[in-house]
Amino acid sequence: MKTKTKVFSYPIVIRIRPIQTAQTFSIIPSSYAAADLDAASITFVENGTDIADPSPSFTWAESANTNFIEVTFTPSLTLKEGQIYTLTIKSDTDIYYRDLVYITSETSKKDVFTLPDNYDEYNPGKTEYIVI
Fold first, then answer.
1. How far is residue 85's CA from residue 97's CA, in Å, rounded to a whole number?
2. pLDDT of residue 124
3. pTM of the entire structure?
4. CATH number of the domain enclosing 43
5. DSSP string, 28-75
6. How many domains does the chain have?
7. Sign of CA dihedral 105, 106, 108, 110
8. For residue range 54-67, what is the model confidence (pLDDT) as tens digits?
9. Which of the residues 21, 73, 84, 111 has the least number of beta carbons within 10 Å of its own beta carbon?
10. Domain containing 102: what range?
11. Which is it for strands 3-9 and 41-46: parallel, antiparallel or unpaired?
């Protein structure tokens, strides 16, 4: 069996730095209604451990060209370098936005990062399919 390393490029997730102060990023939520976003809450959960940030906060504003929403996010827990979190902006009944957040002090958007876990490629040889 071959051992391969999973490689992902940064643009698939939101990137924020491992600091406890406010950070701003752009999103396109499923609802742009101010009343919806004003009443929304945010959850921030560490992938793998399911440890949730007990009291994250966020504010939002339309971008200058009104194509995006600028979210200013402040975590209440210590962010870990290289960790991935799931961020969800929601109401009691609707989810307006969900994405992965990668914690990194790296600022280059052209670099590619490698996840630390490896996987074994399964290759059973020839596979035949019968179409009916």
1. 14
2. 58
3. 0.71
4. 2.60.40
5. --S---HHHHHH-EEEEEETTT-PBPSS-EEEEEE-TTSSSEEEEEE-
6. 1
7. negative
8. 999 999 999 888 88
9. 21
10. 13-108
11. unpaired
